[in-house]
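Course assignment 3, question 2. Fill in each field.
Student: A.L.
Task: Predict the tertiary structure for the chain below.
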Amino acid sequence: MSITENSLLIISDHDYERLLPLTEKYKTSAAEMLDDELGRAEIVPNSDFPVDVVSMNSSVTFLDLGTGEQSTISLVYPMDADIEKMKISILSPVGSALIGLRVGGKIDWPLPGGNIKHLKVVSVTQPEKV
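Answer field:
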């Protein structure tokens, strides 16, 4: 993978603590890639987490720079995934590519089969805190 802009990944300590066990539980290439991303991310306290960074349960609008298609998804844990509601698992290629990116951030992300997705984060809406 290659990050082309806003290369620093930022993960909240809360998300990090919940995501790390997933990388150990699931023995897939997506889990391996997520583990790599977590390993290079800056972990910040939940209270200091920037609102313009993709996190778990956030709503993310991103642009596929290869096709020009714009999509909006919610990034969720595997058990909450529902493609019909655009709730995308963190263990999907797109989910693990987007986590920790800032608005304006771009990434080139390998997909199964050898293709590369070129993505850019357009906007992020954080979940409401209860």
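Instructor remarks: The domain at 2-125 is CATH 3.10.50.30 (Chitinase A; domain 3). Residues 1-5 have pLDDT under 50 and may be disordered.
Grade: pending
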